[in-house]
Amino acid sequence: MAKKDRKSEEPAGGLRERKKLETRRSLAKTAAKLFRSHGYENVRMIDIARAADVAEQTLYNYFPTKEHLVFDQAHELEARILSAVLDKPKKEPLSVALHRGLSRFLEELSETVGKSHGIPDAVVAGPELRRVWIEMNARLADSLTDALLGRGMKDRAKAKFLSRSVVALFAVVLEGVGEDALAGKKREAIRKRMMSSIDAITAMMERGFDA
To answer: Which of 159, 160, 172, 178 has its CA 20 to 30 A from that of 84?
Structure first.
């Protein structure tokens, strides 16, 4: 009996979602190339749609604004942040878990410096991008707050403070790499400087913020 093609057995909903994800990634990659070659401010949504060979409305169906194209990795960042806090060993200090999570984040970011699908270094350039970036960080912090409360943390104010602090750490790393990349610094120099900052920040957390 001939083996069935596994893809032919995939539920229609699963195939549809996979194709939507592939389209989304393709659009974001096309936009990233245009932003890097022409400058973020000089690229319009219609330019991205034409380069991707899709209708402009199709692009808007996936990304409501140009700014959202820059931050297409929001879901991946959210998963990374939640995992760093929620999946650590029970007795491991949070500072140790965050050092590990931030170090991995930095390594992956630094590997994309200068590549067409690289980090959104434009996060540091322009008020509209800054607005969307700040809104995204707030949503990430709310998500972590809800997760902590769901895990049994009773004090909502404590959960909010912890969540916003953790999200801020990841934001500091991404922004730091972006700033250095825009300044033309080499990948290894960026990685070394930001690793030093991660060491210092997590050490400060371990000692206490007033140290």
So the answer is: 178
**Whether residue 117 sits in one domain with residue 96:** yes
Q: pLDDT by residue (tens digit) across 57-72?
A: 999 999 888 877 877 6
Rounded Cα distance between 98 and 88, Å, is 9
What's the token pair of residue 158? 């404590």
- Going by the DSSP 8-state scheme, the letter that residue 10 receives in this structure is S
Pair of tokens at residue 111: 């590997």
| Residues whose CB falls within 8 Å of the CB of residue 67, separated by 6 or more in sequence, listed in order | 128, 129, 131, 132
Q: Do both 146 and 55 map to the same domain? A: no
- Total count of domains within the chain: 2
pTM of the model: 0.72
Q: In whole angstroms, what is the distance from residue 69 CA to residue 179 CA?
A: 19
